[in-house]
Amino acid sequence: MKPAALLAVLLAVALAAAVPAASHAAPPAPPAPPAPMDDDEPGSGDGENGVDEEEDEIERGLADALEIEPGVRVLVQSGRDLALSVEPDEGDDYGSLAARFGGAAGLASPLREANGDAPVVPERASEIPWKLLRNEYRYLALRTLFPRDAFRDGAWEHDPAQARALVYHVGLWQVADWFTGKGENWQEIARFNGFTGPDVPPGRVVRIPAPMLLAPFRPAAGSVDGVLAYGEDAEGPYAEYSLQKGEALYSAVIIRFTGLLHPTAVLEAADAVAKRSGIADVTKMPTGQKLKLPLELVATPYLPENDPRRIAATLDEGELEAAPLPALPRSLKGVHVLLDPGHGGADIGARSGRHGIWESDYVYDLACRVGRLLAKEPGVTVHYLVRDGKAGCRVQDARKLPMNRKRVVATHPAHLNQPGASTKAGVNLRWYLANSIYRELRRQGVSPESVVFLSLHADSLHRDLSGAMVYIPGDRYRRGSYGVRGESYSRYAEWREAPSVSFSRAERLRDEKLSTKLAQAILDGYRAEKLPVHAEEPIRDHIVRGVRGRRGVFVPAVLRGTEVPAKVLLETANINNATDSALLADPPGRERMARAVVRGVRSYFGGKRGQQP
Ligand SMILES: [Zn+2]
Fold first, then answer.
1. 607: confidence class by pLDDT, cuts 50, 70, 90
2. How close is the Cα of 459 to the center of ligand 1, in Å?
3. Which of 199, 350, 356, 411 lies most in the core, judged by the most C-beta atoms within 10 Å?
């Protein structure tokens, strides 16, 4: 970073720190912050970065005032020249930065020039000048720098006095350049606002008429499919849905539009929606009832196209599409399957009193069935991450399984989850173990594409929900490095081999791409076995938990830390649902699920689609 740029950042940080938070409206929701949360299922997401996490958070809190997304910040130079400061990823060069931030790899040479021909390295931030930025990033930068700006009554209202950094000497030329892409538009903006010259009169807001604005600044009235209308009231922006005949609030509205799945979160969100919509009794809603969903609760695909979260997701999708898909082996010969039956020891996972089953033993039996089927395939090697010392992985043909609390994570030494203890260590040790096995396979010459990681689970969701759901590692939820610290871990050989891991952008994109393909194959297997598949977005690249202040978005820890490129966490069933729990309790039901998984693995590796194992 140039000294001037550094100074600008320091000034911005100092200013942001000095101004009391109350003087600013809430900034736009940052695109997908990887917020770890305290959850026991799936893959506890809390505190994985170890003891220093809290301090890190405090430091980040100050430095992030101008952060658009992790590692990307707005720079203000000379009071008015905007640019982005970008921390390059491992493997980035000017071509990849130009493609990501400029929208065209052809901008690589002007970008290199702007950075004084310096090589791109992760330790040094690169600068992306305003004129090279794609409109989406210009929009995100201005929303970050001026969080109180908004579209009102046909124009974008810009208040230069409400910047989150030191901004000065800004004339209408800059404003026109920032919001319309053309400085020359300043005269028309001056006329529209009744200003007599190129300066913004002190204390005035500038209104930029809709037709002149860069596309992202122009709001859409509703979703493209016409299902949702967008609006704003005194409490903030919302999406509005008209209840159709026969639709239920939970399944047709809350679960569909918020992405929430867990019973308490669904209820809480339903309460928030009812309150916002002025509905006293949600059991008595007429067809056509207008329901207002606070935008902060709305899942990405249903957000307005110019919502910062949606823009970040769209940019990410574009990158993912452009990423290459590595060639996969065309058969199962030489394939290694890392099989993680999710829970073990005192950690029995999800349980349903109503249906009398619990996750650990039923899913372990299912995993043993998957292993048994895979063992029949010539050339496949199965590696179990959880071990049952006494019985081994032996399939049990019983409807009521005994509760076994002796199974251990197969680390060195073995790890037994203790009663009353956090399940966190067990979760983390499973990905440490997976990485240890993977590294050993790589040393033996096994290609990355010949290995898959399957973590099998059963979820406890709202009881109306049925069917399999697969979590995959979304690229943007696993930036940075991951590792846990502490004496409790240092006794494990797998931990000592590599206490922390990090992934380059190319690796994360590859992982997401391969994992999506594997997830699709497994769900196709479910369909071929006529087993239920979750109705809304059965493949998810992150988990959403909680409502409002406790909202968290993250990738399950076993997927986040695992180095195996193709990795999925399969929620085989929802044990709160009558159909699903009956399937999981029934030995032939578990066998069908196992067949579905093995069909998936086979078709992923180019075998005949949907072939009977
Ligand atoms: Zn689980």
1. low
2. 6
3. 350
**Cα(458) to centroid(ligand 1), Å:** 6
Q: What pLDDT is recorded for position 81? A: 93
pLDDT in the model for residue 553: 82
Distance 349 CA to ligand 1 centre (A): 5
Q: Rounded to an integer, what distance in angstroms lies between the CA atom of residue 117 and that of residue 602? A: 48
Instruction: Give the residue carrying structure tokens 């000095």.
Output: 18
CATH superfamily of 336-604: Zn-dependent exopeptidases (3.40.630.40)
Could you read off the pLDDT of 477-517 as tens digits, one per residue? 888 788 998 888 999 999 999 999 999 989 999 999 999 99
442-487 per-position pLDDT tens digit: 999 999 999 999 999 999 998 889 999 999 999 988 887 889 988 8
- Please state the φ and ψ torsions of residue 85, each to the nearest 5 degrees: -105, 125
Does residue 64 or residue 147 have the better pLDDT? Answer: 147
- From ligand 1's centre to the CA of 473, what distance in Å? 16
The alpha carbon of 418 and the centre of ligand 1 are apart by a number of angstroms equal to 17
Cα gap 497→331, rounded to integer Å: 31
Query: How far apart are the C-alpha atoms of 450 and 281, rounded to whole Å?
Result: 55
Q: CB count, 10 Å around CB of 548? A: 11
372 has pLDDT over 50: yes
Mean predicted confidence (pLDDT) in 386-392: 81
E strands present in 313-401: 336-340, 351-352, 357-358, 381-384, 386-387
Q: Token digits for 48? A: 């994985």
282-294 pLDDT, tens per residue?
888 999 999 999 9
pLDDT at res. 549: 59
SS (H, E, C) 341-353: CCCECCECCCEEC
Instruction: Give the 3-state DSSP-derived string for 68-119, with helices as H, strands as E and coil as C.
Output: EECCEEEEEECCCEEEEEECCCCCCCHHHHHHHHHCCHHHHHHHHHHCCCCC
Question: How many angstroms separate the alpha carbon of residue 379 from the centre of ligand 1?
Answer: 29
- Tokens 């006329």: give the residue: 191
- Confidence band (pLDDT; 50, 70, 90) for 554? confident
Going from the Cα of 428 to the center of ligand 1, the distance in angstroms, rounded, reads 13
Q: What is the pLDDT of residue 70?
A: 83
Provide CATH 3.40.630.40 ranges for the chain.
336-604
Distances in whole angstroms, Cα of residue 517 to Cα of each of 111, 228, 463, 512, 568: 35, 30, 28, 9, 10
How many residues make up the chain in this entry? 613
Sign of CA dihedral 86, 88, 89, 93: positive
Distance (angstroms) between ligand 1 centre and the Cα of 357 equals 13
Q: Could you tell me the CA-to-CA distances from 389 to 337, 392, 410, 432 in Å, in that order?
A: 20, 6, 10, 20
